[in-house]
């Protein structure tokens, strides 16, 4: 009888060991999935902050974006990092959810871009656009009248005023 119970115990221990192995594998897979979700959430947050910065820059520099929906006036000029980058650990079960970010109700019309422009979103392209903007701003500044020169001229010839 004791031998029979020992055999049953041994069989049950094998089932417990198998369950522990299955649990360990599942825990590793879950940990990996949570790490991947965390990395993707970080990437979403980074891209959302870049998008917000681009919207702010367009609003500040009065750059007209082709919009299907929304208005750049909906984008706040001061960046609220706590609100925009708040960690999103949701649900009662404690699982991490994909990050939801503020889009300000804006939808950009990308159909007006050429295929080449859509494909090329590199930092070189951004730098090239920034250089063009700086060049145009420089030209605008050169066209503006030099108020100090006018004042100096008037002060040099007080009898003419």
How would you describe the shape? rod-shaped
Give the CA-CA distance, first to last residue: 125 Å
Biggest β-sheet: strands ordered side by side in the sheet: 1-2
Regions with little confidence, pLDDT below 50 for 5+ residues: 84-90
- CA-based gyration radius: 31 Å
- Helix amount, in percent? 55-70%
| Run of helices and strands | HEHEHHH
Query: Please, how many helices?
Result: 5
The structural domain count equals: 2
Q: Beta-sheet strand percentage?
A: under 5%
Mean pLDDT: 79
Output the structural class. Answer: mainly alpha
- Give the number of DSSP strands: 2
- How many strands, what sense, and barrel or not for the largest sheet? 2 strands, antiparallel
What's the short version?
The chain is mainly α. It has helices at 2-60, 81-84, 115-119, 123-143, 147-156; strands at residues 67-69, 107-108.
Q: Can you walk through the features of this model?
A:
The chain is mainly alpha-helical and 161 residues long. The chain has 2 domains: 2-112, no CATH class; 114-161, no CATH class. It has 5 helices and 2 strands; from the N terminus they run H-E-H-E-H-H-H. The protein has helices at 2-60, 81-84, 115-119, 123-143, 147-156; strands spanning 67-69, 107-108. Strands 1-2 form a two-stranded antiparallel ribbon. The model is unreliable at 84-90 (pLDDT under 50). One of its GO terms (molecular function) is DNA binding. Keywords: Cell cycle, Cell division, Coiled coil, Mitosis, Nucleus. Residues 2-50 form a coiled coil. One of its GO terms (cellular component) is cohesin complex.
């Amino acid at each position: 009888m004791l031998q029979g119970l020992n055999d049953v115990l041994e069989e049950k221990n094998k089932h417990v060991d198998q369950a522990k192995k299955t649990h360990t594998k599942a825990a590793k897979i879950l940990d990996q999935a949570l790490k991947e979700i965390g990395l993707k959430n970080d990437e979403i947050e980074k891209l959302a902050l870049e998008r917000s910065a681009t919207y702010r820059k367009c609003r500040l520099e009065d750059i007209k974006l082709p919009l299907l929906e929304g208005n750049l006036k909906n984008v706040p000029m001061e960046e609220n990092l706590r609100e925009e980058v708040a960690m999103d650990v949701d649900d009662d079960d404690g699982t991490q959810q994909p990050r939801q970010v503020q889009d300000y109700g804006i939808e950009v019309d990308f159909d007006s871009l050429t295929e080449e422009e859509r494909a090329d979103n590199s930092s070189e392209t951004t730098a090239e656009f920034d250089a063009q903007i700086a060049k145009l701003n420089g030209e605008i500044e050169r066209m503006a009248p030099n108020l100090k020169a006018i004042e100096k001229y008037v002060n040099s010839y007080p009898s003419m005023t």
